[in-house]
Amino acid sequence: MIGKLDEMMRFQETALNLREKRQQLLASNIANADTPNYKARDIDFNKALQGALSRTGSNAASASAPGELTKTTFTHLSANAGAANSIDGAPLLYSNPQQGSIDGNTVDMDVQRNAFTDNAMRYEASLTFISSKIKSMLSAIQGQ
Questions:
Q1: How far apart are CA 108 and CA 94, in angstroms?
Q2: CA 20, CA 4: separation in Å to the nearest integer?
Q3: For the segment 4-30, what is each residue's pLDDT rounded down to a tens digit?
């Protein structure tokens, strides 16, 4: 029973986690709008969500999964050594500005503010959806 409830909410949980990480990334872009040579970053949310859902939907991979390297000493790099360049397996992409700036900064404030607002609204919509789902389940349990 609990497994089915968890499965029902998994999509929204995964989407909320990704939206929160994207929001931090967009906020970092906005905060560095005046930093010379700063390169704005973003993720392809749809691809990131598909990848995250495929990882959470399947059973956890075993330590000896096909194609996975085995570390024989602690000095070997781990498989997620490039994690700084990705969010939940989705690569961080560089933004291509419409018009370049003299100082090499690629943050377009209008684009970043719009993306920030859009992401925030979608985050709120996901929270509203989850809240209504929980309320309908409670009402079904209580028989109202």
A1: 12
A2: 25
A3: 777 778 889 999 999 999 999 999 999
Cβ pair 92, 22 in contact under 8 A: no
CB-based contact 111:30 (threshold 8 Å): no
Angle (CA) 35 81 34, round 5°? 5
Question: pLDDT tens digit string along 65-124?
Answer: 444 556 676 666 555 444 567 887 788 888 888 887 899 999 999 999 999 999 999 999
SS (H, E, C) the chain: CHHHHHHHHHHHHHHHHHHHHHHHHHHHHHHCCCCCCCCCEECCHHHHHHHHHHHHHCCCCCCCCCCCCCCCCCCCCCCCCCHHHEECCEECEECCCCCCCCCCCCCCHHHHHHHHHHHHHHHHHHHHHHHHHHHHHHHHHHCC
Radius of gyration of the chain (CA): 20
Residues for the chain: how many in total?
144
